[in-house]
Amino acid sequence: MIEKVNRLKEMIDECNNIVFFTGAGVSTESGIKDFRSKDGLYNEKNSYKYPPEYLLSKKCFEDDLKEFYKYYKDKMNSLNYKPNVTHKYIKQLENQGKDVIVITQNIDGLHAKAGSSVIYELHGTVNKNHCLKCGKEYSGEYVFKSKGIPKCDCGGIIKPDVVLYGESLPENEWINSEQAISKCELLIVMGTSLTVYPASGLINLFRGKYLVILNQEKTPFDKTADLVIHDKLSNIF
Q: From residue 182, how far is each of 17, 104, 179 by CA, in Å?
């Protein structure tokens, strides 16, 4: 373990253009639940009308908005959570003069809270919301503190800028992520099982020096990586 961590440090010291590709495992140590682990949201005892996958879908938003927002407000509110050592380490590298880009599947906004300058949020963020009628933007705080279904001043329904099941990923974030991964020297993938497509397919675009995977469980890309560490991210960083 120590040898692997030292090797990771050498790779980071050697490279200037670094991309961090992050998943739910980065935020679990801030107290935010992931989705698919044994303690994740999908395996919780469910007291709602529908399973979580449906509750977070475009169809549920369209067909049962009241139930959608009941679950969304209960489970997706990350406003009071704080960045952990991993989020802060990424920002620290940026402060040292490294060219750092964060590509994340997380919607919790913790990379932004940590101060990272360039973040591509593939699945959107709870911190941004908009009115479906007039387009006015609203904060996450406004939505989570609202009663029932959040409404705009114009009377329109407010929708979170997060990618629901059945929706496409944001085009600009996707294109920027493709370019970042294809051009970087070092790609560090962490806290993700790399089983959610199309996001995980971005890894195939990497042509740089080192591919590193940091995750507690094995991933489909472990065999192609230059360095793999199966441990908690807090232990590594």
A: 11, 16, 5
Q: Are strands 137-139 and 124-131 parallel, antiparallel or unpaired?
A: antiparallel
Using CB atoms within 10 Å of the CB of residue 85, give its burial: 0 to 12 exposed, 13 to 18 middle, 19+ buried: middle
The CATH fold assigned to 1-32+83-123+169-237 is Rossmann fold (3.40.50)
Catalytic site positions: 123
What count of other Cβ atoms lies within 10 Å of the Cβ of residue 127?
21
pLDDT 10s digits, 168-199: 999 999 999 999 999 999 999 999 989 878 88
| 164: nearest Cα among 77, 65, 55 | 55
Instruction: Determine the pLDDT at residue 169.
Output: 95
